[in-house]
Structures are given as structure tokens and as C-alpha cells.
Write a structure and sequence with these properties.
Layout: E1 2-12, H1 16-24, E2 36-44, E3 50-58, E4 63-73, E5 77-85, E6 89-100, E7 103-115, H2 116-121, H3 125-136, H4 138-150
Amino acid sequence: MGTILGSATTEINAPIADVYRVAADVENSPKWQPELKEVEVLERDADGKQVLVRTVADLKVRALSSNLRFTYSEPTALSWVQESGDLSAVAGSWAFEDLGDGRTRATYELSVELGRMLGLVIRGPLVDLAREALAGSMPGKLKGAVEGEQS
């Protein structure tokens, strides 16, 4: 089975609370993550946070559905794990660090276990392309969404 591991970091010219707010708004993440074709909140906690979310992502090879369980540590982190879906396993996180002067360091980490069938299709150079699409580009997308919202 193929595993894709990725991590990427960027600095965002916005306060940590603003960065966290955009990243934690999973329901509206297709606005800045174009590969997400559908997001449906299946469960919210008592505070209204989106804790179980069904996503459908278009990875060009095929569309993949996942039910993701989210955990929030406002304003410094959020994480998720797949409860069910087309992939064997998914786990990811955002970590945010207040750099002062209205700047935030955002670090994205993702681990995807493709499973037998996708592992046969996505291998070799395609693994690097998938890693960049799934993990490497995320901090830049979040930066664009947050900084664009402030202009």
C-alpha cells in the first residue's frame, strides 16, 4: 500500500486568530481549496464546531470521499482523522504560531494511506505530485485566503 506523507510551512501576514478562523471553517474551505468539490457537515459540537465532515476531493485520478473527525485547540491547532472513506487512512493537522506583529506561522501536516488499488496507480513520480497537491500547497492556499480576506 502507498503512503503519502507531507508537511509544509509558511508565514502569513495576519494575526493567529484570523488564520485559525479561516482554517477551522471547514465548511467553507472549498473557497480556497479548489480540489474539494463537496463538504457536508455531518455533526457539530455544542459550540457549533464542525466535528464530523464528509468531503469529496477531486485528485484527478478520481474523486475520493472521506468522513473526517476534527479536533480543535483554538487558536493554535486543529487536527483530523478519517473515520471512513475511500482511502485506507487519513490524518492531518494545522499548527499555528504567533510570531508577533500580526504575523502567524502556519504548518500543515498530512498522512494518507492510499490503499491497495490507489497504491497501484499512484506511485513513482506521481507520489511527489500527489504530496505537493495534498500537503505542499496547503499553507500557500491558506495564506492567500487569509491575506486576500484582509485586503
